[in-house]
Hints:
This protein has helices at residues 16-25, 32-48, 54-65, 67-70, 72-78, 83-90. The chain starts with 15 loop residues before the first helix and ends in a 10-residue tail after the last helix. Helix content is 58%, strand content 0%. The protein contains 6 helices and no strands. The chain has a single domain, classed as Arc Repressor Mutant, subunit A, CATH 1.10.10. The chain is globular, with a radius of gyration of 12 Å. The chain is mainly alpha-helical. Helix 2 crosses helix 3 (54-65).
Amino acid sequence: xxxxxxxxxxxxxxxxxxxxxxxxxxxxxxxxxxxxxxxxxxxxxxxxxxxxxxxxxxxxxxxxxxxxxxxxxxxxxxxxxxxxxxxxxxxxxxxxxxxx
Length: 100
C-alpha cells in the first residue's frame, strides 16, 4: 500500500483516514485546517501532475484558503520541519521533486 518512505503507491487509495495514520506517525494530529491544505495539494497534483514544492504550495493555499493560511510560517507551524514533504505524504502524493 505504501512505498518505503510511506508515500501511497496508488493515489486513488487515499482517504482522510490514511492521512490521519500518516500524520500520527509524525506526531501530528490533523485538524480541519490541515485537511483543507491536503485537499489543496491534491487539487494541485490533479491539475499539474506533480506534488507542489513549498513555493507553489504557498501560492495554491493562499489562492484557495486565504493569504494567512498560505504563508510559509503558518505552513511550517502546521507541518513542522518540511511542510511540502509532509503535505505530500499526508495527502497521498509523491514526494515533491526538490524536497530532501
